[in-house]
Amino acid sequence: MAEGVRRLLGKPGAVDIRPYGKLLEQIEAREEGLRELEDAELTAKATELGDAELPYDKADLVELCAVGREAARRALGERPFDVQLMGVMALLDGRIAEMATGEGKTLTGALAAAGFALRGKRVHLLSVNDYLARRDAEWMRPLYELLGVATAWIAEDSTAEERRTAYSADITYASVSELGFDVLRDRMVTDADERVLPAPEVAIIDEADSVLVDEARVPLVLAGAAEASDADAEMADLVRTLTPRIHYEVDAEGRNVQLTDAGIDAVEKALGGVDLYDEDDTSVLPRVNLALHAHVLLQRDVHYVVRDGQVRLINESRGRIALLQRWPDGLQAAVEAKEKVAVSETGEVLDSITVQALVLRYPTLCGMTGTAMAVAEQLREFYELEVAQIPSNKPCVREDEPNRLYATREEKEDALVAEVARVHETGRPVLIGTQDVAESELLAKRLADEGLECTVLNAKNDADEAAVIAEAGTYGAVTVSTQMAGRGTDIRLGGSDMADRDRVVEAGGLYVLGFGHYPSSRLDDQLRGRAGRQGDPGGSAFFVSLDDELITTAGGETTGYKADAEGRITDESWLAMVDHAQRVAQGRLLEVHRNTWRYNQIIDVQRQVVLEHREAVLTQGLGDRQLAVDCAARHAELVEEVGEEETGRAARLITLYHLDRGWTDHNAFLAELREGIHLRFLGRRDPLDEFNRDAVPAFKGFLDEARAKAAQTFEDAEVEDGAVDVAAAGVKRPSMTWTYMVHDHPFSSGIETVVGRLKGRRASD
Ligand code: ADP
Ligand code: MG
Q: What are phi and psi of 505, to 5 degrees?
């Protein structure tokens, strides 16, 4: 199809929003009639909407939008724009509403949430971080009050009781990670009353593409205390003596490192003649690999920093150093050995859930974001979600310049610094987006050397970042930030109080500079979208060089160009090559997503079997019934001695213990299997087939085995003071648990990078 014809049909893949537009006049007419009502009468109108089932019919939808609009005007002083109401209708239809930055998605999401809640659905509004969850809940609270629906939010330090209360509200705001951690903890309870979450009903996801696509494969992990693993100082010292390209090779993507034959010889010799590939002693090779991975692929100040004698991880996509973050056990210890710092306590993974699996629990799913069309296909493939493209309230007048391509990184940096200096002269605020924290810091130093003072956003908490980014539109401001720092925060021209707005508008509005492209054009667009909100003036430009990781990784051409004296390349075919490199990167990200999804599918099927079984034990006395059959004599004896209820309690605890223990072990087996297959079968067979070949039979006798073990424990358990002493029979829960997120960054390290927080939450909490 010709490009022109396609454009006439609108973007392929978006849902038709004209039906929403047709209701706008009726909504406005109805709104007039609501103006004179007392607040209490308006609340009553909202409540009346609850007398029917979802979905809303047209008349009720008009009523909902009119009442919601009038309530927002009164409660927040903001009368929702037509486009926001179209967004509300799209969300109620279960769509992803694409609305640009600054269009007011918070209010849009809130009105849709109220719409679901009024019809009796429990709504979870999911944010990308805890700061935004709280901010949005507090911000929208007056609106919800006027509409007669209850709202609450989950904070990172909320207790179990507070969480239970918050989740019982009509609408609960939570970060994706906190929600996931609650799901994981709920799966480990031994008493149904300990659970904090009700059954999932509706999720509205803010920044939906970040959550559903970028973070989709990120596992949220619940870990429990276990023995600390040893620092492998010997291996750390050994790999330090190896020479790149002679002893080991790193693959083109920098994701894997492998010993060469010479490397194998050197290591075997250094270890006094061991055989690394000895079938009977397979313990040495993983140690070497871990140390090598820590030494070669994880770079100080890029992947982690060492502060106060501790290794702290940098979350690459967010460019943030999170306190108490860690990698999976072995790797954490290997990096600690590399840096010669004290080894921290380790734990074992009790269970995990990917963000994708987490949101797929909801029967109704919708969300909003500034950039959805670019991933419309993935949203359909992985979530069966369609995108509704909502036009902006005012036309966007931001000027996006074509790429500025340079031959080398130095020339790119020089050009960017010169551009910042030139623009800064005029007072126009500049926001520079970098790939990671290390780059932000280098660039800030470079700018300072040129006498350009700038604010760097990284390694801080979300609230601080929000406060800083809110001022990025101040006259004369220069701000350097990673792509996602301070997201969700409005950048107003003239500063957060807009005091200087006229002067900044005069200067051209916010000017966004990208220091290199991100691995997808969608991420570039998110940075660009920082400027030009609500019809503001603004501009953007990306500075790219041929030695940018994005281009070298994609195997782009890097010689034979023609450049001017500043090193700038303007030839069309070279500019096209940059776009191509980005498409290659996008394709690879999608492949990684699909691949992780395939691995997780089999694991999820197995997990589901265990969870369903667990539920029956927890709430329907299945363990007791089984043990009454398997250990009939002992069961009868115990009932006689301690009564039915206590016997049932013991049976439940014992059965749950063996189910959970078995699942934790099986999980560890699967993790090892996956990592091992990656190493063993690289390039030869389909690793996924190999994985399934081992994972399926390993699970085969799972439930029977747990049942048999429970029977054994039940037989052995003794009575103490009128109760069955299950602890003495070996039934122990982890003394403490903690949670984290694992990010694997497809462009730097193959091993998953843990970036969550070690929380030290007690299991009983
Ligand atoms: P987004 O999430 O789409 O980027 P926000 O929800 O953060 O946007 O809102 C951006 C800004 O627009 C906020 O300052 C908000 O108060 C303002 N805003 C939203 N809706 C309206 C409205 N209908 N009228 C006036 N201001 C609005
Ligand atoms: Mg927002």
A: -60, -45
| Helical axes 702-716 vs 632-642, angle rounded to 10° | 50
Ligand 1 pocket test target in 106, 129, 143, 469 with most atoms within 8 Å of CB: 106
CA 139 to CA 106: how far, in whole Å? Answer: 9
C-beta neighbour count of 612 within 10 angstroms: 10
Choose among 606, 751, 744, 597: nearest CA to 678.
751
Do 625 and 518 lie in a common domain? Answer: no
**Residues 659-671: tens digit of each pLDDT:** 999 998 898 888 7
State the pLDDT confidence band at 394, using cuts at 50, 70 and 90. Answer: very high
pLDDT at 296 over 70: yes
Cβ 251 under 6 angstroms from ligand 1 = no
For a ligand 1 pocket test, name from 173, 484, 490, 527 the mutation site with the most ligand atoms within 8 angstroms of its C-beta.
Answer: 490
Nearest protein Cα to ligand 1, atom 19: 104
80 lines ligand 1 (CB under 6 A): yes
Cβ neighbours, 10 Å, residue 611: 16
> What number of CA atoms fall less than 13 Å from residue 316's CA on the CB side?
22
Strand ranges (E), 335-391 = 347-354, 364-369, 387-389
Tell the residue nearest (CA) to atom 17 of ligand 1.
Answer: 104
Of 55, 36, 39, the residue nearest 47 (C-alpha): 39
Which tokens hold the place of 49? Answer: 């909407």
What is the value of pTM for the model shown? 0.83
Kindly list the distances between the CA atom of residue 416 and the CA atoms of 389, 519, 690, in Å, as whole numbers in the listed order.
Answer: 34, 20, 48
Q: Which of 70, 73, 74, 107 to mutate to test the pocket of ligand 1 (most atoms within 8 A of CB)?
A: 107
**40 and 135 both lie in a single domain:** yes
| 497 Cβ inside 6 Å of ligand 1 | no
Looking up tokens 């009024």 gives 118
The residue count for the chain: 765
Q: Is residue 750 part of a domain?
A: no
**Domain membership flag for residue 582:** no
Q: How far apart are CA 691 and CA 688, in angstroms?
A: 5
Residue 243 has pLDDT above 60, yes or no: yes
Cβ(542)–Cβ(404) below 8 Å = yes
Any atom of ligand 1 within 6 Å of the Cβ of 492: no
| Domain carrying residue 694 | 592-733
End-to-end CA distance of the chain: 60
Work out which ligand 1 atom sits closest to the CA atom of 81: 23
DSSP state of 534: G
Tell me: do 429 and 488 sit in the same domain: yes
Note the pLDDT tens digit of each residue in 608-625. 999 999 999 999 999 999
Report whether residue 369 contacts ligand 1, using a CB cutoff of 6 Å. no
Token pair for 47: 């409540």
Give me the mean pLDDT over the 360-374 stretch. 96
102 Cβ inside 6 Å of ligand 1: yes
Q: How far is the CA of 390 from the centre of ligand 1 (A)?
A: 15
Specify if 108 maps to a domain: yes
Cis ω before 55 (30° cut-off from 0): yes
Could you tell me the distance, in angstroms and rounded to a whole number, from the CA of residue 33 to the centre of ligand 1? 25
Last residue of one domain, picked from the residues 336, 367, 389: 389
Pocket flag, ligand 1, residue 87 (CB < 6 Å): no
Same domain, 427 and 511: yes
